[in-house]
Amino acid sequence: MKKIAIVGAAGRQGTCLVNEAVARGYEVTGFVRNAHKIANSKAKTVVKDLFDITADDLKEFDVVIDAFGAWTEKTLPLHITSLQHLCDLLSNTKIRLLVVGGAGSLYVDPAHTVQVMDLDNFPEAFKPLAKNMGAALTELRTRNDVLWTYLSPAADFQADGARTGNILLGGEEYFVNEKGVSAISYADYAIAMIDEIEKADHIQKRFSVIGA
């Protein structure tokens, strides 16, 4: 049975990942900043700031999921530095690192020169977040010493959506379903993430997922 560590396990996406992994029978440990925030009693809890996590803390795990999120102007650069920290801890190990990514860095052209966040209709309010997450991905691509996987969600990422199990996988480019929609719930996103743990189809690659 694989042992999975989830960093940021108390957040809404982290919670969905914990629940999905536990439901599939994995041994799950959530790293959180508040001991009372993990609702799933079948998951273990470690109270520790992400930047205080050490290589010793992670050495017994098979997979680390990075579900860290930052939303304020002051904390947005932490998307880059937090991922750097986790990569350094897992460097030259067999421990996989799966990253909860963003949709803004998906490409909209075959040449991969234009990203979703470059489009005129991309909301200005989300551009700083998209740029920081995109920069983190760019640096992640240079880490040949880490078994990383980056999963981008649909453009409409729905925290409170239902778990349907109806998902479509894509690659580096933005895509839509038969209805012309790019949307997915946090719960369905969690399915794709845990599926990737089981299948290991995207080592040192970025892929994407939307609702069917």
From TrEMBL:
Gene3D superfamilies: NAD(P)-binding Rossmann-like Domain
Database matches in Pfam families: NAD_binding_10 (PF13460)
GO function term, MF aspect, one: oxidoreductase activity, acting on the CH-NH group of donors, NAD or NADP as acceptor
Domain NAD(P)-binding: 8-196
Domain of life: Bacteria
Protein name: NAD(P)-dependent oxidoreductase
Organism per entry: Candidatus Borkfalkia ceftriaxoniphila
